[in-house]
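Contributing: when you submit paired examples, paste them exactly as shown. First protein:
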Amino acid sequence: MAIPSVFLKLHDADSVVLARLTAPAGSLWSPSDGAPAVVARERIEMGHKMAIRPIAQGETIYKFGQPMGFATAPIQAGDWVHSHNVDMVELTRDYQFCTGVKELPPANEVRTFQGYRRADGRAATRNYIAVVSTVNCSATSSRYIVNAFDQSILKDFPNIDGVIALTHKGGCSFEYGGSDHRQLARTLAGYARHANIGAYLLLGLGCETGQASFLDEQFHLVQLGNSGATAKKPLIMNIQEVGGVAKTVRRGIEALHELLPEVNNVQRVPIPVSEIILGTNCGGSDGYSGVSANPALGIASDLLVAQGGTSILAEIPEIYGGEHLLTRRAVSKKVGEKLIERIHWWEEYAGKFGATIDNNPSVGNKAGGLTTIFEKSLGAIAKGGTAPLRAVYEYAEPVTEKGFVIMDTPGNDPTSVTGIVAGGANVVVFTTGRGSCFGSKPTPTIKVSTNSLTYSRMEDDMDMNAGTILDGEKSVEEVGREIFEKIISVASGEKTKSEVQGIGDEEFAPWVPGPIF
């Protein structure tokens, strides 16, 4: 097998190449057209970029065949290209609508997974009981209730994956019925009625703005139950009404004990893969994310969509600068314009705090080779494959459309995945270059490393290694198919690395963007 070059050129129009491994000064990149080799004038760290031709100050720099930034100083061929000589300057995007819609060919065979069928007909991949805290004031009580259900209790109920407390820092000090209240309520309701929650208790303090009764009335909540079960009203407790923390904890434990046999009374059955709702997210991204793991996940996303399933691309701030590529895939101008409207909302939102969206790439992102949000976005979009864009949802909105869709979430990982899961995602695939240790109960999270070094260093946390693409061992298509098969296996009950380690209780992080009064 030929040894891969230390540098990768990703598109014919690019003015930079990517270092597959750390390249010492003097390393060579040889163009495929036989032109003279470019010599690295300095050390280029793995995941970082080297110029392959002179770039004038103010000139656009291209990666993935798209603008990723502008030179702030003259750059010579062989120079390291990063934050010290690149900046993001506002550019005009060509927002075309519906011009790049290409329907995917239908799947050759109908695939199934082994899932739980709920009473309302939806498909579940896990089976949890939840205590949903309406306000931070009931968070500790929620934890006390959940702590009573350790393995010594659950061992007698093998079909229950766990009892979880969905706690957060908000629930009060905002306008009753206002946008923040509605968004938090939509998120909490999305978890309460999630297919992976077999039963739940709503627990409040009693005097908070975010009342449990508001959730019940606005979202018509019922206990989900298993196939054939009769729908029941939700359990609601308020600490002030019950008579304090100790009494509430005792009553909550008693109530959940009564639910255990019914929630456990479920078996996995064959369910079409079309009922998988996939959430995609990236965190701890590096310069390889857009080359290995993200495009491979895009292949898996297309395979799922071809089966009739749903794939959610999120993190709108990490679409910024590449959204014009997605508007072309919109099935209607209305869908494309909704995406642009969300982009403009984020520009205005960042401006209120004297920030710009280019503040998004983190310290770790930049250490891993990502320079601007444009570059990060071009790689992040690859998670969405090539399928037509059928809908754009606001944060935690129920996802009802089949196919490829977008949800407006922040780039912050726990906050983003919380919105995706509230929208109904029953499997999440999370790509990472630096090594994010993430879980998201009640939905299993498959973590895919972008490079072999991170995978080998964090093998207990990474489910899959897309670094085999960079190593020349496998193609993007091959790894994409492996991710698709892993999605089916995990949906059928295979435990992810984060589940094995019990990760996912602390990552529930509802997004409330407004002020606290």
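Second protein:
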Amino acid sequence: MALTRKNDRPSPSGSGGGRKGKNSDVAVPALGPWGMLRWAWTQLTSMRTALFLLLLLAVATVPGSLFPQRPVNPTEVTAYIDNKPVLGHWLDTFQLFDVFSSVWFSAIYLLLFISLIGCVFPRAKKHYQALRTPPPRTPARLGRLPENGTLEVGADREVLPDAQILARSAALLKKRGYRVEQRPGDKAPSVGAERGYVREVGNLVFHFSLIGVLASVAVGGVFGYTGQRIVVEGESFVNTLVSYDSFSPGTGFEEGALSPFSVRLDNFDVTYDRESTTHFGQPIDFHAQVTTTEPGQEPQQQDLRVNHPLRIGGTAVYLVGNGYAPEITVRDGNGNIAYSGPVVAVPQDDVFTSLLVLKVPDAQPDQLGFVGLFLPTAGVNSSGVGISLDPSPVLPQLQLNSYYGDLGLDSGDPQNVFVLDTDQLTELNSRNLDSGGLVVNAGQTVQLPDGKGSISFDGIKRYAALDIHHDPGKLPVAIFAALALLGLAVSLFTPRRRAWIKIHPNDPERATETAGRIIEYGVLARGEDPRVRQEARELRTLLEREFSGAGRTEV
């Protein structure tokens, strides 16, 4: 007989072993292309993935707040790249100046949209099936439930039939919002009930509303548009493409989507703080009086204020800025009027010291250009430099440098109207020349050197900077957002509960000889529910009232 040591064991891979060794090869079936697709779809449509993508989308919006965005302010983006060429180049490469239209942001957005659809629709189907499923079967021992009790009925009056007790018990539960099923064929006749299905309905409404919000935002981005226009007092804006100073359409925009209307700026009023010692002279209210016109309707006088836009034909018109537009007349060297009208000046500070650029391509024999400042209330600082002392036009003045030469407009290349390129121009007036800079007060005319012409400061008008915004998805977003909040509230504050009522026949071991029936009940909460005990108490009270004349009761 062969002897073996106590620690000797047969090899796991031997013929007598039924298991493979730890280091043995395990044959894993290949998923194949279809299997990989199913696995990827399962991962994408999981709730965990949807929550991760939602968080990732929120994080992806942060660069849109940190860096200037080209659709909103292309000039600021250009200045950022010029000031920081290396960093600006890399930021532009990764589309951080176009965050909300970038490839990576759109990918996250689309994946979140698909993930939510893949999560919600199967869940809705499952809930629909649950609505058609009877309440869970009655537990054999209701006494093991956290909330339970018994009630003895019929001890001092005629015993009620089991069917009637079941029907009346089911009616009580229905009144409390339970979906019930009577089970008279059980060994002990019972009623099964469940409530709180609306909790899952609220959850589904919340998730469907999120899908609706995402879809509505996408529709607004595709078919909406945003444009800007500066309107001087007395001028009108007509909602056509050629009337915009800048225009940013969606990818699905068509010119026919522009609502036909016009807005005329009749007057622009500004109220200044004249009482405070710390903020004296600061503007405290802007008020634009406009006349709007739509086809087939009478012109309407309306007020346009900050944060109180006009709503015209599904389009919102916002007041986003204002300033002064000095009225200037320029005569060329031949004595002809080469330019006459208001010139928009861009405010640079709180007292409306404004940058003014005027290009006069029609001047003869040389084109003329002017750049400088408009000062509403002119003054000088300790260095002798002109400044504005107050934002109101008490002592308006133009301080300009003048140039002549080729403005570069005939080449057809686009130029910024608020920037004068002086590379191909020759100075006529500036602080660095003997002729000095041009200082023109209101109502004054100043001659240019070398017989190049003259410039006149005729008066002042105000202008309003308008932002015109059309977003067809705005109303659906508001509706779906409200539905999402409603669904979330329902899902948070609606409890999910189950209740059972069981009828026991005469049983000497559990009741007296005179007892008719014993009603046993139990209540169970699905999840955390601090009010489930109160529910059990209220159910007992209703049973006692329904089956009045009850004898001894037990809990």
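If you have annotations for the second protein, write them as plain sentences, like these:
The chain is about 30% helix and 30% strand.
The radius of gyration is 40 Å.
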